């Protein structure tokens, strides 16, 4: 009994056992968790980091350091990469000052910078993504598909943008911008995100195939040969009726005045 009582553990034994236990727990956890959570694409990670740095310098004053939104700008959580690519690619963002409607202008950022910021915002929450190049390329469409794109555009879009995409006035001093000179990718993105007064057209309403055909129709209208005569702004019966009124009724007034003056002289 005296021999057993004199056998004591070393003072460092307990800390050593604790460290060993923690090491074993960590090793087991590393083996159990899914491998997909451990690694990420190095290129994408680098792009996201660059986008975050650009975002905090150029966008955070209105949208918050983490895109949570402020009194000056809405939250960007869940808007997706397509929204950023559209707003920045068309020069609508950043805005010099808050206004009723942001006009289209030259972008202040390079395509690489826009892509980086879009990638960062996409990590804040799921949202519409930037389309593949094949979706916005109408070069392989047939005449029948282009005609169907025209029908889709006239049904869903012409009430605001005019039958030829020239734009038009909306209530409360707002307007639907013209679609001339707009990149196909931005037309697609506008359908999916619904910027400003525009409604959102989900893939359940307008499929990617429909969107490609609408883009093809707009390109056809913008590049067509007028075939002689005056286009009158391609605004349809409104301008045609106006000119018919001005020229027709105006001409009748001039003729009536001339006849009246001749009659007065003959007396």
From TrEMBL:
Single GO cellular component term: plasma membrane
EC number, UniProt record: 7.1.1.8
Predominant localisation class:
membrane
State whether it acts alone or in a complex, and with which partners, per the record: The cytochrome bc1 complex is composed of a cytochrome b (QcrB), the Rieske iron-sulfur protein (QcrA) and a diheme cytochrome c (QcrC) subunit.
UniProt binding sites for heme c 1:
59, 62-63
The UniProt entry's coiled-coil ranges are none
Catalytic activity, reaction form: a quinol + 2 Fe(III)-[cytochrome c](out) = a quinone + 2 Fe(II)-[cytochrome c](out) + 2 H(+)(out)
Transmembrane regions: 242-261
Top-level division of the source organism's lineage: Bacteria
Posttranslational mods? Binds 2 heme c groups covalently per subunit.
Give the residues the record marks as binding heme c 2: 157, 160-161
- Membrane topology according to the record: Multi-pass membrane protein
One MF term in GO for this entry? heme binding
Name listed for the protein in its UniProt record: Cytochrome bc1 complex cytochrome c subunit
Where the record annotates domain Cytochrome c, the positions are 46-125, 144-222
Read off the PANTHER family from this record.
Answer: CBB3-TYPE CYTOCHROME C OXIDASE SUBUNIT FIXP, CYTOCHROME BC1 COMPLEX CYTOCHROME C SUBUNIT
Source species taxonomy: Bacteria, Bacillati, Actinomycetota, Actinomycetes, Propionibacteriales
* A Pfam family reported for this protein in Swiss-Prot or TrEMBL: Cytochrome_CBB3
Q: Where in the cell is it found?
A: Cell membrane
Q: Which UniProt keywords apply?
A: Cell membrane, Electron transport, Heme, Iron, Membrane, Metal-binding, Repeat, Respiratory chain, Translocase, Transmembrane, Transmembrane helix, Transport
Organism encoding this protein? Raineyella antarctica
